[in-house]
Request: fold
Amino acid sequence: VSGGVAVVGAKINLGELDIPARLSPALPRWATELLCAMACVMMAGLLRFVINLAIPFAAPFVSIYPATLLATLLAGWRSGAVCLILLLIAIWWLVIPPVGEFGPLTREDAAALLLNGLSCMVMVLVAQGFRAASHAASAERNAKLEERDLLLRELDHRMKNNFQLVAALLDLQRRRAAQPETAEALADAMRRVQSMGQVHAFLYSAGRDVERLDLAAYVHALCEALADSLLLKGMVRLECRLEPALVSRDRAVAVGMVVNELVTNAAKYAFPDGRSGLIQVNLSRTDRGSELEVCDDGVGLVGQQGAGLGGRLVESFARQARGTLTRGEGAGVSYRLFLPD
Reply:
């Protein structure tokens, strides 16, 4: 079964391959068709030579079928027909006695040439029909892909607008909130929405791999946006040391939200009373996977909030990323997220 699947896959690829179209306009179509036919004739001659080494003058027509089929699949029915004619002439000249001249054909030889020629011509027509069907299917597939890309661009535009609208509404409510706790909660919600908008903008920007992306590039872009939104300037710095690591989109989204929560928490609570400090985001590769570390040199857990909604979100996103989250030792606060391959 696996062998059959491989053969079908190869035929589909050959059916969609159009060498004359690829070489146009550098070479006229007729020239490419002729070159493909001659190349397949040479291939058939080589096959005939190998067969003669084992069984001289046996099965004279065995090599014309693969050569004619290949010429048709590569360059169309005209190339296949030319290849067939040239091979029949070569068989008459080189294989059918008297060898080396176009001698008179016996009834059996003439019938063999005619029947094999007709069989090959039927094969050429079938192969041409296969090519036409493959090209039509390819054109239909490309049209659907273009339509899908158009719909995705439209969806991307609408999603960006929706994120901006929700963030603007939360910011408006924050400004109108009478209680500081309410304003702070709305500000946290607004930052989370903005972070998700940045995730969407990065992950679904044009030209990126559909399935996997470089986590280092994504985290770097996210940290730059966080530094701007959290107003980390002067006294508190955010540094990134990131090694390339390919992950799926779903894992990248979850890791990004972990980074967002931990960096935001450190910026809010690790440096009270205007003290200076450093927040670091490190991503390194190991033999078993990738390790993400978010740490600071602030006041430690005494001043930071490790529980509450932010802490629960971090744990939830770590599970979504199929990672293991641990808290490090030492000054300040550090968290490590191990992501197995």
